[in-house]
């Protein structure tokens, strides 16, 4: 079994520390160990990142872009190994892990280019003897805390824009999936990204988080994970007034209008619902279908859902891997039994299989009192409810503390745009079940988070605005 090291100041470190076992959720076998570090190592990582900051920020944007491009190329060369590592530690089907590697690397190639487009401004002055300039500077040392559901993409979506802007980073990957993170970041050193620019610490989340929150040298915190931990980190950032970006929970509604193309709507729900076995924050979580088409929609969807194959992610033809842990499976079972108890009908009731596998479930006759309509299920369950009017669909879809992604299906362009504009969500897929892409802004309204990742918007999160007023 392989023992991985952490990367601090470009060196493999943590060999002397106790270890954290990384398991394969497909069979609970231990596949590797990583160091179980705490506050001391977290502070060493800040030392390294602070030390490396001025030289990295001092490179020209073109030089930083060049290193990012080399990192991208090395990841391309190692994509298959990285995808397999990801499937082993996270469980997702290999085809999805390959897809994630493309998506993850897309952020590095995009921000290698965006590094060159961090523009300043000149503002017309009121007096002739003044010149007003605005320039952008990197925020500084950035703490990156990521979840297990996208072990590579959640790292690159944050680290690529941070590095492009001139920031240095300290990263804590999720305890379930540190291997992909360590492998991806090890390639950065080979790409010529200097020691200390990227540091990775594995271990005690709370102790590492506390050390980073307390340290004034960490000027920015970027987090993806649960709303609960997000709130905690937001509070913890207050003492040192850090800049923060948060990508938190979602509870994505899907609205299927009576004029929707049902093939498109079914394909969209399948794509958004079952990716990563339902364990993404943009997974559709509740489906509102116009009452006039609900029977044919449900039948078509159920026919497709029945074809989905559940199994070990490394095997051919698998659509859904295992869920991440026991509590994830328990939540799925709880949401399903709660809905059935309150009157929902199971159009397809897949079972819990041995280990952490759960087959898909399609529920209709669902109402707003059920847990699945109020909380993120994070599993392969599709609850279907009906609506009579557009106004009702929009109101119920918006009735949530979350506001990350929403989906709308209609063949009428005016209806589609009208509903999209009313959605209190940061991302709307209009006849599109997979809207995420590196060049577009990803992020939520309301309690789904703060800030945006991706696109030209994403780099702004790592930049300070400096105004220089010149008297001539
Ligand atoms: P999930 O429910 O998806 O596991 P979490 O919000 O618990 O989401 O975890 C997301 C990331 O936040 C992980 O890397 C986890 O280790 C980290 N994390 C959890 N609790 C804390 C904490 N108190 N301080 C800092 N990081 C934390």
TrEMBL record:
Lineage: superkingdom: Bacteria
InterPro entries: Ald_DH/histidinol_DH, Ald_DH_C, Ald_DH_CS_CYS, Ald_DH_N, Aldehyde_DH_dom, Aldehyde_DH_Superfamily, Succ_semiAld_DH
Domain Aldehyde dehydrogenase: 20-468
Keyword entries, A-Z: Oxidoreductase
Listed Pfam families: Aldedh (PF00171)
NCBIfam families for the chain: SSADH (TIGR01780)
Database matches in PANTHER family: SUCCINATE-SEMIALDEHYDE DEHYDROGENASE, MITOCHONDRIAL
Family statement: Belongs to the aldehyde dehydrogenase family.
Protein name: NAD-dependent succinate-semialdehyde dehydrogenase
Species this chain originates from: Halobacillus kuroshimensis
